Queue: 2 jobs
Job 1
Amino acid sequence: MIDAHQHFWRIGRGDYSWMDDSVAAIRRDFLPEDLAPLARAAGVTGTVAVQAAPTLAETEFLLSLADGCPSIRAVVGWIDLGGDVPAQLARLAHPRLRGIRPMLQDIAETEWILRPEVLAGLAHAVAAGLRMDALVTPRHLGAIGELAQRLPELPLVIDHCAKPVFDGSDPGADWRAGMAALAAHPQVFCKLSGLATEWGPGWSAGSFREVFSHVLGCFGAERVMWGSDWPVLELAGGYADWHAAAADLASGLGPDERAALFGGTAARFYGIGED
């Protein structure tokens, strides 16, 4: 079982600018030894560590953790896609670096990812064998669809089901249409993660059944992967509770589909086991 999306951070590194008082509950160090008992209890044997700060130093920090923690099977880092991408990738060369994640949700320009210099940077990432995590909200779905059309050789995964805005359990018609359009591109995948935080306290498995059904119906289990989004998850719930909710949502799937959702899809997307 693979947790396809989790974070580590050491506050003293100083580049987590988003950690204001609204996230005071998680404004402390979270390191592999903190995750280990939670992952073990859930049966998770490997994780994908994802960047939480837009700096090369953050990526180097995660790669250094991977050197000493075999359970970190892949790292998704950050690079300046408008800068000298080959030089940055040379600096970050490491067998566990499997993807990059521009923090698109924090960029005011919705179509920033389509700038010519950014597309050129992504082409260098493709040549290096990297994938892209898309940290997006529903406003970005059209731009990501355009990106998928322009760079069909770039494997993409939509983090947190694109953070739907919930009206009760309804994620909205625009979100449904946008996700269905993205699923038409075979290189686009989706992470079942981050939904508890989007909902806030008081969620249950039933809160996300409509999102889960739509995502599975569009992408199929072979392109959907479960992730915890820990420790951001701690703002709205616990690791065991989110894992149990996902298992509940997946209870109607066959064994092969469940195996894909909880590990196989992530392993295939990130090339885990190929090193």
Note: The two ends are 18 Å apart (CA to CA).
Job 2
Amino acid sequence: MLIEKNFSDNSDNISVGIANISSKTKNLEENKKQIIKALNLFSEKKANLVIFPECCLTGYFWEHEKDCRTYMEKNSLDNLTDWIDIIVKSYVNETLQYIVFNGLIKNSVDTKKFFNISFVLDQTGTYFDKDRTYKKTFLPKLEKKYLLSGINDTLVLKTAWGKFGFLTCYDICFPKLIQKLVKKEKVDGLIVNAAWRKQGEREYKGPEIKEDAYYKYLWDLILPTLAFQNRVWVMAANAVGPHSIAGVEYCGGSGIWAPSGINILKGSNTKEELLILHNIDMIRELKAERNNNE
């Protein structure tokens, strides 16, 4: 399903596509097909920047470590360069200039660990260079079995429409990392790739309050706060639907938040959708919000 809005009538402004999709664990080929289907539509609709969720090619980790590790090693980005080259040749052009993916790449020093990287496909052809990738910094407990942190790593994408910094999933909870992008790198927006789950329980028996979807609550709370507190655009692609092995469910809710914190476009919490916001006047809105804050 496609959800499409116009921010303005000025086609010189950026159009952003976001994939609110489910990645099938243990089914790389099905995930590739889904990505290509999405790219076909984003390309047809003349998006300039497209963002996919965390682990969009492989699906997310699961608890059977040996089984999971074997699958992830076989399907790490190191083994998918030919397919990625085809994607670049087929879709990257003067209109669709940037495609943001996330996946795993092997660590040459500690062969038992991967890095979780977000990277940009564009016309430079240098998408795995050190200064073209972002290694996820903050790792939940399960991920520490498989991943090393990219401590102090930063990626800033400079475009004709503004500068964008990168965060991956759990990173959005840590202000110092975000402040580095906003205060030091002077980014205009944050690009977030996530596989953020819905479940999580919190209960307060005295006032009889119980929250069964605590992590979804946090997702819905943090993203507009990121935008508002830092006066930046936030563009987030999150997985949606169930993990086929672990039984957890991802909360979707991908979208775009203005520097005011107000949501402009948001995806379903349960269904796969492709989102496009056309002709976003990013810099004008940034200036307006920052002037209002002075």
Note: The chain has one domain: 2-292.
